[in-house]
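Quick question, first post here. What does this chain look like in 3D?
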Amino acid sequence: MSALTGLLYGCLIVFLGGWYLGQWSGNFSLLLLVLTVVTMAYWLVERFHFAPRRLAASLALEAQVETRRAQLAAKGIHKVDGDVGQARESLLAQPWWLDWTAGLFPVILVVFLLRSFLFEPFKIPSGSMIPTLLVGDLILVSKFHYGVRLPVINKKIIANHDPQRGDVMVFRYPLDPRIDYIKRVVGVPGDEIAYRNQLLYLNGVLVPSQPLPDFYNEDSLQYDKQYTESASGQSHRILVDRTLPSYARALDDYAFRENCTYTVDGLTCKVPAGHYFMLGDNRDHSQDSRYWGFVPDENIVGRAFLVWMNFGNVSRIGFFH
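> Answer (accepted):
Ran it through. Tokens below.
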């Protein structure tokens, strides 16, 4: 068993090393599920096989010692050198390969359940959600807000809230579900979304926006035009780069591509059932639904709601819309 455990740890190290170096992609949810199952198997074998065997060996040792002492006492020898305590502890101790498998099972199980059904941490890798979220923000995502889903396969088993316009949502990128994206929901099923001349229209009505002081973008080292945008009772800040056109160079083919019409000044899309239209708050520096289409409900990961740390700027910690 020690050789098998060493081999499993070797495979894990090689896999994680290759993943970290970009040699191949990985699915952390699947990896965590596999670790949970493997350590649970060790834990069950330890609980019902190895631990009883070690206990039985310890009790047999104590019985042998007591028998020997009784035999010596019958011969008038009452003082016997030696302490069986250390030998008993040695017999009861877990070997290293059980310490690093069965011993880790409770911790891995708690992490798996928390991450799969309650909250999952993410790190913001790009500036597409500036000014709401900055590069380096460590955020928490509620996994149950939009319903409880089975890990790995992401199958919804218990419904909860539907995504609302204005929500900041993490989802699996429709063109490569191995990648997680984060954007803002601007269109729900049945909505008509238009983005023309850097202005957002919802069902034919211009979404109200108010200018704010320019925002200093540390990514681009320049000041960007900043606005407060209000849709469906929620307000949030956006950035607009007036030096760029609002034309979106979309992919030639994606699901429900026929629902969108592209013109030189922007696009108009009808959101299909079971899908959502997503935009980044950094409007002119975001690859979103304007380019690759709608997000299906089965790709939803959860609702982002909290920056829990930014090591470069701790003042970032807090809730956001």
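The mean pLDDT is 91.
The first strand starts at residue 119 and ends at 123.
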